[in-house]
Amino acid sequence: MKKNKFSKNCLNFGNPEKEKNMGEFVECVEGISEASKYLNYPVVSGNVSFYNETKDKGIKPTPSIGGIGLISDYKKMITMELKNDGNYLYTIGKTEGHLNQSVFARNILSEFKGPPPEINLFNEKQNGMCVLNLIKGNLIETCHDVSLGGILTAISKMSIKGNKGIKLYPIDGLVNKFEYFFGEDQGRYIIEIKPENLENVENMLKKDSIHFDKLGVIESNQITYGNDLKISIDDIKQSYKKWLKEYMVS
Prior knowledge:
This protein is of the alpha+beta class. The protein has 7 helices and 12 strands. 23% of the residues are buried. It is globular and about 60 Å long. The chain has helices at 19-39, 103-108, 121-136, 150-162, 177-182, 198-207, 233-249; strands at 5-12, 43-49, 53-54, 57-58, 62-69, 88-92, 142-146, 166-168, 188-193, 212-218, 222-225, 229-232.
């Protein structure tokens, strides 16, 4: 993949005449500038929308940035759906288990406290470039980012697209299962690897000092985690298809 890419943004805020709102706007612009320069990611256009309020209460700061990248060879394009039984899944990037401000904390625990996950620009760039090199070397079959909802949401989407199940390995670390599967730590990816490519992939990850976890193996038509989780891909698909209708009529 070439480095040539650009993005368009829209910055949505409340009343800038209020000191807090203007402070949020300034911090947002400075943060975008710092990240764009470090990642060599130009933001070429966009707009600012102020005074987004209802009954004198402003919206939460909402910067939206959409990016476009160029793929130099479409034959090496990697998609998100799981490919073949017997292939292994690894998580690129360290999972600390950050739940504050996550989908899990808000929607399941009804908790709205704490800061969002920190962004480490060095790790963000290092992990992303490593994934690109794995793609260029034809060493991985699938890749998907870990974002809203954490690891379990990411693999559910991958399973739906590929109609494949996953046997998840026991967690090897200090985080508990809820933090591990639903934490929204930044700069992470899930990759699918053929058994014959495992050694080469691990050697490349270790050479670049990239943290990785062995997540699981693709098999059957359900997602399982020991005795704690067993759900069929068909059930996940049904939940995915019907949630919006049920939400609208509730």
